[in-house]
Amino acid sequence: MRVCVDAMGGDNAPGSVLEGILSALAADRDLHILLTGPAPVVEPFAAAHPDRVEAVPTSQVIAMDEHPAQAVRSKRDSSIVVGCRLVREGRADAFFTAGSTGAAMAAATLVMGRLRGVSRPALAAVFPTVAEPLVFLDVGANADCKPENLLQSAHMGSAYASVVLGCSAPRISLLNIGEEPTKGSQLALEAHELMAQGVPGFAGNLEANHLLDGLADVVVTDGFTGNVVLKLLEGTSRTLLSQVRDALTATTLSKLGALFAKDRLAVLKKRLDPEAYGGAPLLGVAGVCIIGHGNSTPAAVKAALEVAARAVRGGLIDSIADRAASGMAASLDAAKSTGESRERRSEGPA
Predict the structure, then answer these.
(1) Bridge partners of 35?
(2) Are residues 168 and 191 in the same domain?
(3) Which of 301, 1, 291 is nearest to 121 (CA)?
(4) Quick one: 56 exposed, middle or buried, by C-beta within 10 A (0-12, 13-18, 19+)?
(5) Angle between helices 186-198 and 327-347 (to 10 degrees)
(6) Is the pLDDT of residue 347 over 60?
(7) Which structural domain, as residue segments, surrounds residue 77?
(8) Residue 279 domain flag
């Protein structure tokens, strides 16, 4: 299991990245790391772990504030671009970075390439719910979508839920402003029709207030809406945890109560911690690509490497490719026929 890691990705790089790698290596004896980044960073670390880590020195680094596509094209020897190239060449099975999300998506799409049948890769996130974890996509790769893009996201999210989260029969829903099939924008209406025709396990529309109720295993939306939802949940969670902490430490009595509830609160905090789910997978590219948060801690890096290894071992790319070649194509053919029928009905009699 060879996972390429960008040593320079994230606000806390390279320290947090290297510490996270060490934790991942200790937890997985079959894991080997290809480490991209400046020679003074990657070579000493590889020399200290010669049996498990290989240094791949690069001369460039893509900064967080650089234009993603331009940086990928101009910095071909950057740690992100080289990492994606190693996957394309077969030297690495997966790639992880906590660096620029835009640059990582651009490099994965341009260098690894898209899977056949996938028009636009989608960025997914995993949310904790009252039941099992939820795959939510797209969270930012495609701000403007067509119905067929949401259809493809449904198939790709279902594959990820099956392979990585172990969900045997994923329930897929479309995020909408109402449960009825007639609700929503034109995009939502047409996407619902497509998904109802060709997505196994499609459970219809899901409103945002039920997103975390455990009613679906995969929820699909466009990248603009998905990114807003993601950041709203992050901000809400942060604010609520802060308010709970303040309330539990406000008085001597509340502090005593917090002491008794300490163990259960620790369990809850761990369950709600987004770092436990290992970063955001970019689905639809021809290789496993996991993108971590910019402020990823060593624990987050470790979790991301575990997810990357699980995706490779479970055959995630083959699973998505199979669905791209069969399920997506069949759904689009059916949608084309339905669309032609709708046009004939709207034209009326000759």
Answers:
(1) 5, 55
(2) yes
(3) 291
(4) buried
(5) 130
(6) no
(7) 1-113+285-314
(8) no
